[in-house]
């Protein structure tokens, strides 16, 4: 059994038909019955999509082909399907039929599969954030394959609580406040440090992202208790693991600290030794100097050991890996895991020009190498120019590799929330300027500033809420929607916008974007021609 998401249109336009008729339904109406019902391969569907949509490029055709192939062939009877609703509820069903084309149905409702809806009013709050985030793709048809999704969706469909990801840290969930964290570190013996993910560590303080204010509070709390995190909790991704050590505990009878004893022990797990060894080398001012920034370690790829070759390997081994994985370069490591250079298609070509029998050593060139604690922005130019940078840990061992593609994903993810909020503001400005007289717009700002207000563009985001609370202004918009729900959504978006203005190295999740996305979709529906 597998679990899928099949959306009902960008703005939920097919939701009612899907729920009332007991079907999964997708668009792509230019494709007729024979285009899909008679297909057996991806190439068949790709040809049909390309013929039906001749103005689309290869990327779009390939993307649509994958979604339609999943809908027609990969989804099986008995699979579970999730339908996120625009009401912010969720429907879950079980697939009962094969692909059908309904030629007589209304346009937009012709490509369907039968489904038995098991629940149609599941509150999103009952779904844990990791699974909810997985449902946030903008694709119409995609599989939920991570974090034990199928079993969890089945539990939700039966009215049971979301059991959470199979690899979840159940113990970390019991650390519900800082005092419990302190007590747990104190309870443990010196050779059994507490380790947990940064995500779970932040949850102890009730926060999800590393905003400066939250980070300063956590650092202050740790310092007051004589604790240290290794690596610093300001480095790495939210899923990176850290150890919490009693760095300030007094020396024992031998005159050594717990950190020094741990770092010098050979009988402990490697992860514990590494954590203690790193803590023993922290500078005195570390607690004061570690800040939240765009660290190299904030990228997932910086914490994922790259494929590599070793000094002395055959050049054919390197080229085979590069072709199989589609890599442009590979790190060349010594027996201790430290960087000795990089082999790339360019370096291979240059070596072979000089000697057609050139080996790996001849094709190895000096590689760009960044420390995981470095400021990522300092390396952007290098990555753009060379296409990559190898990442090393505090022991100078390779621990990751960042490419230009990783940068595109990182900063593209960061731009998206700002673009979304900007469109919301632009749409509010246009409708307010069009429907509400300037004198009433000026009435919501302090009298000393009123003369400087020439249009809605001069209003702060928060001022729109005050403006639209007024019954006369609300009626002027001519919107047939609930005023209180809209104002509540506007206030939630204002808070979201304000949070964007506070720096954090952690990305906004799809779940955190939902309120703003919902408001934007509502504004688009109310004023579709702007």
Number of E strands: 16
The Cα radius of gyration reads: 28 Å
CATH class assignment of the largest domain: Alpha Beta
Estimate the helix proportion, in percent: 40-55%
Main beta sheet, described?
6 strands, mixed
Count of alpha/pi helices = 23
Stretches with pLDDT under 50, minimum 5 residues = 285-290
Strands of the widest sheet, in order across it, are 2-5-4-3-1-6
CATH architecture of the largest domain: Roll
Describe this structure in words.
There is one protein chain. With 530 residues, this protein is α+β, with helices and mostly antiparallel strands. It is built from 23 helices and 16 strands. The chain folds into 4 domains: 3-157, Roll (ph1033 like fold), CATH 3.10.590; 172-292, no CATH class; 298-396, CBS-domain (Roll); 407-526, no CATH class. A hairpin with a 4-residue loop joins strand 3 and strand 4. The longest helix has 32 residues, at 404-435.
């Amino acid at each position: 059994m597998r679990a899928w998401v099949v959306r009902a249109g960008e703005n939920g336009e097919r939701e009612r038909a899907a729920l009332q008729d007991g079907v999964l339904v997708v668009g792509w109406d230019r494709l007729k019955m024979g285009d899909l019902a008679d297909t057996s391969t991806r190439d068949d569907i790709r040809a049909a999509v390309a013929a039906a949509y001749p103005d689309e490029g290869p990327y779009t055709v390939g993307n649509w082909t994958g979604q339609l192939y999943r809908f027609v062939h990969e989804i099986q009877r008995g699979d579970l399907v999730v339908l996120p609703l625009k009401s912010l509820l969720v429907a879950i069903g079980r697939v009962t039929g094969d692909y059908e084309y309904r030629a007589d149905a209304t346009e937009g409702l012709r490509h369907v599969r039968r489904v038995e809806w098991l629940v149609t009013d599941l509150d999103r709050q009952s779904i844990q954030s990791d699974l909810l985030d997985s449902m946030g793709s903008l694709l119409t048809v995609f599989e939920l394959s991570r974090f034990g999704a199928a079993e969890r969706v089945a539990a939700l469909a039966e009215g049971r609580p979301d059991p959470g990801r199979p690899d979840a840290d159940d113990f970390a969930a019991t650390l519900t406040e800082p005092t419990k964290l302190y007590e747990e570190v104190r309870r443990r013996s010196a050779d059994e440090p507490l380790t947990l993910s940064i995500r779970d560590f932040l949850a102890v303080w009730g926060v999800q992202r590393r905003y400066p204010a939250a980070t300063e509070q956590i650092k202050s709390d740790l310092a007051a208790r004589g604790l240290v995190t290794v690596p610093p909790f300001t480095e790495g991704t939210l899923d990176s693991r850290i150890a919490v050590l009693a760095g300030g505990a007094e020396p024992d009878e031998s005159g050594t600290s717990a950190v020094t004893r741990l770092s010098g022990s050979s009988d402990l797990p490697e992860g514990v030794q590494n954590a203690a060894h790193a803590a023993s080398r922290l500078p005195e001012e570390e607690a004061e100097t570690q800040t939240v920034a765009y660290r190299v370690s904030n990228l997932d790829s910086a914490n994922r050991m790259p494929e590599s070759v070793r000094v002395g390997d055959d050049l054919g081994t390197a080229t085979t890996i590069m072709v199989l994985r589609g890599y442009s370069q590979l790190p060349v490591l010594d027996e201790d895991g430290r960087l000795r250079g990089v082999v790339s298609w360019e370096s291979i070509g240059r070596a072979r020009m000089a000697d057609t029998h050139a080996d790996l050593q001849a094709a190895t060139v000096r590689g760009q190498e960044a420390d995981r604690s470095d400021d990522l922005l300092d390396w952007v130019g290098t990555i753009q120019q060379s296409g990559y940078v190898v990442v090393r840990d505090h022991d100078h061992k390779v621990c990751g590799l960042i490419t230009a593609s990783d940068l595109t994903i990182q900063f593209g993810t960061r731009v998206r929330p700002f673009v979304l909020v900007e469109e919301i503001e632009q749409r509010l400005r246009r409708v307010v300027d069009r429907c509400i007289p300037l004198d009433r717009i000026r009435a919501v700002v302090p009298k000393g500033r009123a003369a400087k207000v020439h249009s809605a563009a001069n209003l702060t985001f928060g001022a729109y809420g005050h403006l639209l609370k007024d019954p006369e202004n609300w009626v002027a918009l001519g919107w047939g929607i609930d005023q209180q729900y809209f104002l509540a959504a506007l206030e939630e978006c204002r808070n979201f916008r304000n949070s964007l203005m506070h720096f954090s190295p952690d990305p906004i999740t799809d779940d955190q974007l939902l309120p703003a996305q919902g408001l934007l979709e509502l504004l688009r529906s109310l004023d579709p021609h702007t």
